[in-house]
Amino acid sequence: MLGMDTTGDATAGDGSVLQLRVPPNPRFGKVVREDVLAHAGRFGISPAAIEDFLFAVGEGVANAVEHSGSGDVIDVRCRIDPEKIVVTIVDTGRGFSRASADDKLPDGLAERGRGIPIMRRCSDIFAVHSVPGRGTAIVIGCYIRAGAEETSVAS
Fold first, then answer.
1. CA–CA separation, 138 and 50 (whole Å)
2. CA gap 71, 84 in Å, rounded
3. Sequence ranges of the domains in the chain
């Protein structure tokens, strides 16, 4: 796709790592979700098993696009192992102090402030690492539950 770079990880010979570099443009959030879903599918993980996780990933990319204030690409790395799928989203933007990030959902009519609480609630693993003036890394993960893999039924 024009404007996006997809690369593999030389350290993961089993193909368990997907790396994407996306421009800070909102339209690429959907592309990232679709690529992560396709990558998970190659490992037999059903879309239903990671629906909330994909929602959190989309929110993470949207936050990087909107809040980084940078024109630099956003790095997205998805790693799958037998127990979990983890996506790390890294921008080199303005960053923020952790004190300014609230995990509590805002009032139901508020227009802003839902990103971090939504990502936390839609994932099993969640961490934010941010340095003002240097950027932000968000780690979002989902444990792969028994029965979450797609199975084929013999006819």
1. 17
2. 31
3. 5-104+113-143
